[in-house]
Amino acid sequence: MNKKTQTYNKILTSAWLLFLEQGYAHTSTREIAKAANVAVGTVFSHFENKIDLLKAGMQQQIDTIIHQASLTDRQHAPRLKLRHYALPLFEFYCNNIEFSKILISDMIWQADFFEQQMSEFKKRLFNEQQEFDDIKASVMLDCYFMTIISGLNEPAPEPEKMLRQLTSKISIL
Known about the structure:
The chain is mainly alpha-helical. The protein has helices at residues 3-22, 29-36, 40-46, 50-70, 78-95, 97-109, 111-125, 134-152, 159-170.
């Protein structure tokens, strides 16, 4: 691993730990730089702003969850695959409500940042089908994200309840 990648990872890890400890709003880029033992300018040479640090940290966590879920994925139908991946993701979102709301809000207005991840996930859902149905995959993800939004707006979000809602929505597809 080269020095630039090591510095990037050190900054990202420090930011994520501080976000967990202090919350996103209460963590400054100066604190992140200090925790990573780098100059503030170095933070900005790797990440344009603080929200980019959060997005990268969330994406890293989500990638890990998807990878772990893929190890036990024995489903063939896209809707069952979505359910398989949704529960551990819903659990993560519910355990990180503050970050999740920020990420989802940013995702709505910055869809291009997430385009590749969304495309890969849609293909994962259909990887055992003879044909990839982009319209159906897109509708399934629309249902998934609307379930996240409505679930995170509950006073006490429950991943299992969110999964039941998602199941009901995608059963009509």
